Amino acid sequence: MKGRQTTVTILMADDDEDDCLLAREALAESRLSNELHIVSDGEELMDYLYHRGQYTNPKVAPRPGLILLDLNMPKKDGREALREIKADANLRKIPIVVLTTSRAEEDIYRTYDLGANSFIIKPVTFGSLVEVMKTIGKYWFEIVELPLEVVGGRNEQQSNQSSSS
């Protein structure tokens, strides 16, 4: 990966253990140097982002450079969590990719209205999931320019790409 100095944390919020395991394997298979953290519901997602409960230590809960968000989760669903994240000035710049089994037009429109950056229907096969993870990684961590606080730039990194200046 060109220009990448640090590992970017991906935070996945999904209550389906099989999907989480497959995503972890797909990420490894795609050879992206990203760290994957997983939370199982919207409340745990917000605890992670606000460093509450078991996530008070920032080393245990580094700021994510990308959130993969399932819509249908217990306690607080993805729609509620998305609304809360995008309403917070400190969190709203973190890109959120909705990764869900829902094919409902209403969900697609609603999540974009709430500020989602992308909406992806979960692939059915492992091979397809690997391709999706590779594409997500390439797009969000090689092609797109993200604000430094999103990629964890603070002083060790000026840009997430090589610049020609």
TrEMBL record:
Q: Which InterPro entries match?
A: CheY-like_superfamily (IPR011006), Sig_transdc_resp-reg_receiver (IPR001789), TCS_response_regulator (IPR052893)
Residue list for modification 4-aspartylphosphate: D70
What Pfam families does the database record attribute to this sequence?
Answer: Response_reg
CDD domains per the UniProt record, alphabetical: REC_Rcp-like (cd17557)
Please give the SUPFAM superfamilies that the UniProt record associates with this protein: CheY-like
Domain called Response regulatory: residue spans: 9-137
Name by which UniProt lists this protein: Response regulator
To which species is this protein native? Plectonema radiosum NIES-515
